[in-house]
Amino acid sequence: MSLLLWLAALPCLWWTQGVESAASLRTAGIERVCVPPDQAEAWNKAGLTAVPLSETDLALRDPVSVPGIKARADRASATRSPWIFANGWRLLRDPAGHYLYDVPAGKAALAAAEAYAYGADAVLEIEPADLQSLGQMMSFLSHLPSADLPDVADVAVVDDGTATMGEVLNLLVRRNLLFRIVKGESAQFRVNVRLGTPEYPQDAAKDPSALALKIRRQLGDVQRSLRIFGSEVVIGRLTSDGKRTRLHLLNYGGRDVEGIRVRLRGAQPDGEAQVAGQGRLALEDRAVIDEGTEFTVPRLGAYGVVDLPPVK
User: Fold this and answer.
1) pLDDT tens digits, one per residue of 281-311
2) Which of 45, 94, 255, 309 has the least CB density, counted as fewest CB within 10 Å?
3) Phi-psi bin for 278: left (phi > 0), alpha (psi -120 to 50), beta?
């Protein structure tokens, strides 16, 4: 893949400061910016890849939530569990969409990583204080080997396009229950979710958390292609073409997590992790247990990938 095509696969920074700020962008590691059309030529001459984007077109993009967590009191107990704000369900629901992340300070790197992990066409509006952290994340993303692989899915979901179904999809993503959106029930999957059927009446979606738990139990944990242990705030996207496999890991907690334990269904070859801020990391404590392969990613910042080579 050419450099220009690879850069185009990354989220784009919306930047309204003058071209005199080009040096600070390059120093931060930013190589591509979305700018007003009348400024694009000047930015290209300054050595950056400029994408013309009018304010009208910017306003037409679909805004997404600020990714992260919010602590809340659990209704069922005195403990506190985090509420994750993640956009994976929206990006999977409409992979051809055009999205806008308007994020406060401290969120730019995670926003960029989330958009990249789901292959989204996204523009980022950030606080200038995040320029350095965003540049570091963009540099990390730009140096990852290309891996445009299809999603692995365990559950088929017939999406009726409603907000209610959207919340179900949201819960499935947050619980690391891998799904594929289909037009009709598919014999390819053991579990098909379609609201309005005897198995999944419309009323069941009034409690998306309970519905997600029901889907998990019907699938069975042994049959899940992906399970993540050791954190409530890490979401995975598993992709594979049957030969190569890439697992995207997004940490919404705002701080590094030590020792993320991962289980993949089936016997998997040994691989390696690449983690933003850490570089290449060897997978630890690999074991094949009960028709699954387990390993530990020793440390995870906002984002990392695990690449598994073809089985020999």
Assistant:
1) 999 999 999 889 999 999 999 999 999 998 7
2) 255
3) alpha
